[in-house]
Write a structure and sequence with these properties.
Length: 291
C-alpha cells in the first residue's frame, strides 16, 4: 500500500506529491475557509468567528502532529534545526496571543471602572473627568505595548523559508506549519492594529502568502472598531466644557462602553480558547523531540 503524503504544498520549488492525508486536506480546508471568511464577512462578530476558525485550525494541526508519519519525518536528527525553528515560531506566536489577552483584560478593567463612575448618580464632574483621563492614559500604555508587539512580529514574518531537505515528507510538513504560522502572525498583526486604532493593512500579507486578492479589512474588524469609537468619544468628552448636554453625552458614553464591553468579552473568550489550542499544538511538537 502506498504511503500517504502529509501535505500537498503549493510551493513550486520542488516536485508535488500526488496524494494527501485526510488531516492535511482538513488543514487546507480550514485555511481556505479563513481566506474566504476574510473576504466575505459582513457580521459584526467577525473577529470572534475568525478566532474560532483559528481554534479549529490548531486542533487539526495538533492531530496532524500526532500522526506517526509526521513524527517520523520531524524526529530525524538531520531535521532538528527545522523543528527548532518551528518551535521558536510557535513560542513567539504564544507570546503575541498572551500580549493580546493582557491588552484586552487591561482595557476591560479600565472600561469597567469608567462605567461604574457613569452609573453612580452622585459622581461629580471632577470625578468623571478624572476617570475618563485615567482610561485614556491606560489606552496610551496599551498602544505602546501593541507597538512593541508589532515590532517583534516582524521577526516571525521574516522567517518564510522552506527546508532545503530532499525529504518530500519533511518539506511538506514544514511548508504547512510555516504557512499556519504566517497566517496566524498576520491575524495578530491585524487584530492588534485594530485594537490600537491603527489602520489595518497587514492582511495584505495574507493575500500574498495565500494567493488571495480581495481583503475586506473593514468588515472583518467592524466590532473591534468599538475601541476606536470609545477613544474618540472620551477624548472629546475630556476636553469639552460641561454644559446642559452633559447628561446626553454621558448616556452616549455608557452605550458605547456597553458595546465595547460585549466586544471585549468575545475577544477575551476567543483568545483564551485559541491560546489553549496553540499550547496543545506546541506540546505535540515538543514531544516529537523526545522520540
Amino acid at each position: 500500500m502506498a504511503t500517504r503524503t502529509i501535505y500537498h504544498t503549493r510551493c513550486n520549488s520542488f516536485p508535488l506529491p500526488s496524494r494527501q492525508h485526510p488531516l492535511a486536506i482538513e488543514v487546507n480546508e480550514h485555511l481556505n475557509r479563513l481566506r474566504a471568511f476574510e473576504a466575505t464577512s459582513t457580521s459584526s462578530s467577525s473577529i470572534s468567528h475568525k478566532l474560532n476558525g483559528f481554534q479549529d485550525l490548531y486542533d487539526c494541526v495538533d492531530k496532524l502532529l500526532q500522526l506517526p508519519l509526521s513524527q517520523q519525518a520531524l524526529a530525524q536528527e538531520q531535521h532538528k534545526e527545522w523543528v527548532d525553528e518551528l518551535l521558536d515560531g510557535s513560542l513567539r506566536l504564544l507570546d503575541l496571543c498572551s500580549t493580546a489577552k493582557d491588552i484586552v483584560l487591561q482595557t476591560k478593567e479600565s472600561s469597567n471602572e469608567l462605567q461604574s463612575v457613569l452609573r453612580r448618580r452622585k459622581s461629580g464632574e471632577i470625578e468623571l473627568v478624572r476617570e475618563v483621563r485615567k482610561y485614556l492614559t491606560s489606552r496610551k500604555v496599551v498602544k505602546k505595548t501593541i507597538h512593541k508587539a508589532l515590532g517583534n512580529l516582524k521577526a516571525i514574518q521574516r522567517k518564510r523559508i522552506f527546508s532545503p531537505s530532499e525529504d518530500h515528507e519533511m518539506k511538506a510538513i514544514v511548508s504547512m506549519l510555516q504557512e499556519v504560522e504566517a497566517v496566524t502572525s498576520s491575524m495578530f498583526d491585524y487584530l492588534l492594529s485594530l485594537i490600537s486604532g491603527s489602520k489595518p493593512g497587514s492582511w495584505s500579507l495574507v493575500s500574498k502568502l495565500l494567493h488571495h486578492k480581495k481583503i475586506a479589512c473593514e468588515e472583518a474588524g467592524r466590532e473591534v472598531k468599538e475601541f476606536e469609537k470609545v477613544d474618540a468619544a472620551l477624548k472629546f468628552f475630556a476636553v469639552q466644557k460641561m454644559s446642559k448636554s452633559e447628561n446626553i453625552t454621558s448616556v452616549e458614553m455608557q452605550n458605547q462602553l456597553k458595546d465595547l464591553e460585549l466586544c471585549i468579552q468575545d475577544l477575551e473568550d476567543g483568545l483564551e480558547c485559541l491560546f489553549r489550542c496553540m499550547i496543545k499544538a506546541r506540546v505535540s511538537l515538543l514531544n516529537i523531540l523526545t522520540l
